[in-house]
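Write out the bound-state structure for S-adenosylmethionine.
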Amino acid sequence: MADKLEELIKWSKENGTYIDDRISFQNISGRGISAVINADINSGDNLIKVPKGIFLTPDLALRYFGSHWKTTHDRNEQLQLLLARLKFEKEDTIVDGVNISKKMAAYIDFLPDQGKDIGLPYFWNEEEKDMLRGTDAIIFLQRFMDAIVDEWYNSVTGLEGVTLSQDMEKFYKDYKKGYYKNGTFVFLDQPIKSWTSFPAYLWAHCIFASRAFPYVLIDPHEKKVHKAFLLPIMDLLNHEIGCNVRWDYNDDEYVSFTARESADRMKNGHELFNNYGNKPNYQLLLGYGFVIPNNTFDITTLTLKVDKETVEGARMFGAKLPEDASELGINFEISRQDILPEGLVDFFAYVVRLKSEDGMYTTRMKLEGVINLRAILETKVKVFKNFKMQVSSWTSPCVARAIKTYRTSQKTMFQNAIDETNRLEKTLLKQYKPLSFKEVVKQDTVFFNSLLLTFGVMNYDDLIKKKLLDQAVLLWIVRNANKKHYKDMDQQIFPDFIYDTFSDVKKMVPITKEDVIEFRNIYSSLFPALTERIPEVYNVGDWSPRNFIVAGTVCDRLTFKRPSNSEVFFLEKKSI
Ligand SMILES: C[S@@+](CC[C@H](N)C(=O)[O-])C[C@H]1O[C@@H](n2cnc3c(N)ncnc32)[C@H](O)[C@@H]1O
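---
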């Protein structure tokens, strides 16, 4: 590698490349060839200049393939195929009388010979890929691989004068039939025999993904964002998040590289970095074969499967869903910057809405939705926590390290989203100051004493411990409905909104057989014992089973139980 690097630098300089004497290229473990600063550099200095004579551009590929190319090429098919030819074809490649194979030999020789040496997951073995199980990365890897296979086949079979070998035809047919679902490693691990083979094309795709520059840099009129070109020497710089660099195309002649970093980062001994863009880890992994711990641009996906009506209903309700949301799945993007997207919270609020809450978001919906969302996020974290990485002699330590970092970052994002649901719950409770049942029990001493006498309940926590909280809430809702019968009680402790909701429900909601069955046991566990023991509370007003059933609906409509401490809150129905 050192010889090839030396050759590359020598060749580039002979062809007019300028490399500032204060930088040199070295192999750094874990990062490959890296640019190292040998003497302090000033911000804004031009450090590298690469002349257009050694670019590998789409125009060159177009000129080479010319009219032999019969199919469409929306991405970088032509140049990738030319690159594959330059690397894997012994015969010279001549374009407009220039022997490109000879001209670019030092660059092509420097590029890794084997697909797996590029380090991208496409060439990993099955044990290694399996360690990505359950993550976004494995889904994208599969999706991208399918696309590359089609891209290759369409390109090569559309090339006049090229006949695909039988084994490649077989590979394509078998791939499309799904025979490679269990892995492509054995197939890809063989020496590359032909530049038109799939392994050669995949190799070129990976070289492009990890080294190419956007074509728009040298042609500002270019509209295709994916169009790229190869820029030797400049592609030796490694990536660092957020570093301030510039690439400029000057006088239509050469691309220059400038770093505008603070002086302390440009000192002797530091690495000179490029900036590949604000990429999440799955893009870095699939495009470059490395990931960044605590990557501030990392994202993950929470995929939810619901029916079509729910997707459409949520949209109509006003929840901001991702554009491609459908019954096939809603993919909510969770990013480090937006750890709990509004659309996700709204969607869960929509899902838990009651019929009585149609057309508006209520505090209850938001709180209940947040609880449900948290439960799903907790399941995600649990899956990540329970995942055991099976590292064997087949797995490269470097790959295992990258996957561990990737998985940790994914888990952290889900954990951060959970923390955010806790914060949101607290904020909502603080903002809307709902009536706490704990407070109610404190204020309504007559009611509390009735619980003490009948169930031996000493305080609110006792209600929880003795599993009597739900019954106590129902009892108090009925007591609230009977408030006018308690002449000597301070009526302030019985809020109107609970009373009014009770009256509405009683008037509007029919009682079903199922309701009767649901409440029968709970009712008979309390009555007539309560009537007999504490008549001043339970023999005043209407304590019929029907009122108990109504109280059940009122409870659904107005209460929220905080999962962390089982505190029950009454929430007035208000649009938020
Ligand atoms: C454009 S090349 C940079 C030169 C490369 N190091 C080489 O040896 O040729 C991109 C590749 O460099 C490596 N790389 C770049 N930035 C890195 C980083 N921050 N950490 C680890 N590897 C990095 C990855 O292997 C990536 O695919």
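---
DSSP finds 25 helices and 17 strands in the chain.
The two ends are 64 Å apart (CA to CA).
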